[in-house]
């Protein structure tokens, strides 16, 4: 046999092995086991790196695991390999939508509509995306005229007949939050115990279950909820009202930190804006948005444990004082310490990498070590990532993740967890729990229709 012939056979063999791996990955995907799906698509791509479908399928798996940066890169690669691959345009558009890059998404929907002028679904997505782009442009135009107009200041409270309690709570919570620094510092006495919870994401019945298992908040049973209270779960209004109610009851013993989902871009895509509009009004959503901007960004316990939603920074040298000085009353910027606190994730290898999410960065154990040393801290607690056991201890015990939305989005099968911290030793003690049933309103029911389709 000629060299050419045997090379060709080897290639055919590789391609057929790759196809088998793809089938395996597809089956994991169907079972919602996205991690293994990604693993086998990646192996398939190692054998056959010129297959647009593999990239496109892996892109969808990344979308499901909220790795929008990777999803975008894979969709882009699929299109480089085959610019007529329609699914690739959809995937890239969805990734861009998730990242709040609506104009880029619109371009891809435009392409699909041009190639398939009779495709009704494509047309609908194009129109929906176009609507958002126009709405954003309109909002920017208004913002130019009336810089940071306060909804609280412009409410005609006496003439509002419904939703008064909600408004009252929000106005009062804003007052409480504005008095807090961007870095809240508390002291736990020897005998005191604090409960730290991670993401709750609109899973109201699971939140009630936490209070059932761990008792209601009180001055002797303090809590810290570490952001991402809203979006995805369809009971976000109930979650945030409950948390804000406790904040008013026990302002010194019930703590709330901002997550990347307490922001306008996320709320528009992932359901909270839609839910508030459906249950109240668009003005009520603006009021929420105004209050969210005052949520503190980090909390330090006994000068030893630092808690934030996302994680550490894109650059070394950030001090607690730098966090104190952050002017947080805004939508988070695309980079810098405020963005990092809300968005970054830890990684197992040293150094920093590009974020799988497409925002902020990933930081390694050496980064954590240096930060803790410089700021004389013992460890950090963060949330932001779903974990099978509800929590994860990494970076030699110096970076702890806690996530409190069990069976996230009704489909991840994960446990939830919360942490007990005692003033006496500050050792984290983990408690796990499983999901409880909820009324039949599915997660993402109020989300932007393009995201619902993106979730599929
Ligand atoms: Mn988050």
From TrEMBL:
Cellular component terms per the entry's GO annotation: cytoplasm; nucleus; plasma membrane
Catalytic activity: O-phospho-L-seryl-[protein] + H2O = L-seryl-[protein] + phosphate; O-phospho-L-threonyl-[protein] + H2O = L-threonyl-[protein] + phosphate
Annotated signal sequence range: none
TPR repeat residues: 18-51, 86-119
Active-site residues, as the UniProt record annotates them: 261 (proton donor/acceptor)
Region (Disordered): 1-26
Pfam families with a match to the protein in the record: Metallophos, PPP5, TPR_1, TPR_8
Enzyme's top EC category: hydrolase
Main location: membrane
All residue ranges annotated as the Serine/threonine specific protein phosphatases domain in the record: 257-262
InterPro entries in the cross-refs: Calcineurin-like_PHP, Metallo-depent_PP-like, PP5_C, PPP_dom, PPP_phosphatase, Ser/Thr-sp_prot-phosphatase, TPR-like_helical_dom_sf, TPR_rpt
Enzyme Commission identifier(s): 3.1.3.16
Subcellular localization, as worded in the UniProt entry: Cell membrane; Cytoplasm; Nucleus
GO molecular function, one term: metal ion binding
The organism's place on the tree of life at top rank: Eukaryota
Keyword annotations: Acetylation, Cell membrane, Cytoplasm, Hydrolase, Magnesium, Manganese, Membrane, Metal-binding, Nucleus, Protein phosphatase, Repeat, TPR repeat
Cofactor dependence: Mg(2+); Mn(2+)
Assigned protein family: Belongs to the PPP phosphatase family. PP-5 (PP-T) subfamily.
PANTHER family reported for this sequence: SERINE/THREONINE-PROTEIN PHOSPHATASE 5-RELATED, SERINE_THREONINE-PROTEIN PHOSPHATASE 5
Name the record gives this protein: Serine/threonine-protein phosphatase
Source organism: Danionella cerebrum
């Amino acid at each position: 046999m000629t060299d050419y012939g045997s090379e060709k056979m080897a290639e055919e063999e590789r391609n057929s092995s790759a196809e088998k791996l793809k089938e395996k990955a597809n089956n994991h995907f169907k079972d919602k086991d996205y991690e293994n799906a990604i693993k086998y698509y990646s192996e398939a791509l190692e054998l056959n790196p010129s297959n647009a479908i593999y990239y496109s399928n892996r892109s969808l798996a990344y979308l499901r695991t909220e790795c929008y940066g990777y999803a975008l890169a894979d969709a882009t690669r699929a299109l480089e390999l085959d610019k007529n691959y329609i699914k690739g345009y959809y995937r890239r558009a969805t990734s861009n939508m998730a990242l709040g890059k609506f104009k880029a998404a619109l371009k891809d929907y435009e392409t699909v509509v041009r190639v398939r002028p009779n495709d009704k679904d494509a047309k609908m997505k194009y129109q929906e995306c176009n609507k958002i782009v126009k709405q954003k442009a309109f909002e920017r135009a208004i913002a130019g005229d009336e810089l940071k107009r306060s909804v609280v200041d412009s409410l005609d409270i006496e003439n509002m007949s419904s939703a008064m309690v909600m408004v009252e709570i929000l106005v009062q919570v804003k007052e409480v939050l504005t008095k807090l620094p961007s870095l809240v510092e508390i002291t736990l006495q020897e005998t005191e115990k604090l409960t730290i919870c991670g993401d709750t994401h609109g899973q109201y019945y699971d939140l009630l279950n936490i209070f059932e298992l761990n008792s209601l908040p009180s001055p002797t049973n303090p809590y810290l909820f570490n952001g991402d209270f809203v979006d995805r779960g369809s009971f976000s209004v109930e979650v945030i009202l409950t948390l804000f109610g406790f904040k008013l009851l026990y302002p010194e013993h019930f703590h709330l930190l901002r997550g990347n989902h307490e922001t306008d871009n996320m709320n528009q895509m992932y359901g909270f804006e839609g839910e508030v509009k459906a249950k109240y009004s668009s003005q009520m959503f603006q009021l929420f948005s105004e209050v969210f901007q005052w949520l503190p960004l980090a909390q330090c316990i006994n000068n030893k444990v630092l808690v934030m939603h996302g994680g550490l920074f894109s650059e070394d040298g950030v001090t607690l004082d730098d966090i104190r000085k952050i002017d947080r009353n805004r939508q988070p910027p695309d980079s810098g310490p405020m963005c990092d606190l809300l968005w970054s994730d830890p990684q197992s290898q040293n150094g920093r990498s590009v974020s799988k999410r497409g925002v902020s960065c990933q930081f390694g154990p050496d980064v954590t070590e240096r930060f803790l040393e410089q700021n004389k801290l013992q460890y950090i607690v963060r949330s932001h990532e779903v974990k099978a056991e509800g929590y994860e201890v990494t970076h030699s015990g110096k970076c702890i993740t806690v996530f409190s939305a069990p069976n996230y989005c009704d489909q991840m099968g994960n446990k939830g967890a919360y942490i007990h911290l005692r003033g006496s030793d500050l050792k984290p003690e983990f408690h796990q729990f499983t999901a409880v049933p909820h009324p039949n309103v599915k997660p993402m029911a109020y989300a932007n229709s393009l995201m619902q389709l993106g979730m599929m």
